[in-house]
Design goal:
The chain has one domain. The strands form 2 sheets. The chain has a 6-stranded antiparallel β-sheet with strand order 3-2-5-6-7-8, with helices on one face. Strand 6 and strand 7 form a beta hairpin. By secondary structure, it is mainly beta.
Amino acid sequence: MDFKFLAFPCLLFTTECFAIPEIFISNRTTNPIKITYNYLKHNTYLSDNHTILNPNQTYGGETRRYVINNNYLIELIDTHIECSWLHTLGIKHPNGWGIKLNINYNEIITICANKYNVFDNKNHASIEYFQDESGVEKIIFRNIGWWVQNDKFPIEKEIILNSLKNEYSPYWMNMFLYYGDKIENSSIPKIREYAGY
């Protein structure tokens, strides 16, 4: 094969991810689950939405914060740390970046999340939610991109959720969806005070 045919595709390599990571949340239980998230348009969070995921259904979104069943505040933070590379004609192209998973304000793990292909501008990961007959809830957080490397970060982690479970009010969920983990150590009131009118 003549390498001159590779020159043009190599120029099109996107070496950075410019978009919010694309996250797929799958319901692997026998019951519906509720996903709450913010609607993002032009880098502005407009309102919160609710999606009911039936068994074996998947939701794909490009937002950083989700709430599962009012119990789990999930925040995904792009670390901008390269963790996977492609080598073409002696040039090293980044293909994966670390995504940190926080659940209920606890830092859980950082995985390496990759792009689907060289023309993609975002990395991809999935969260699969499970619950067994005994009531044990868990998620599997994994990379679903291509050319996976696990030298720097793992590509998959199973997390038992029961010890992290907490019931959150609608106010607390909205504060999390708009401000993320910044509210844990801030002056933003955690309980809404209503004026007497």
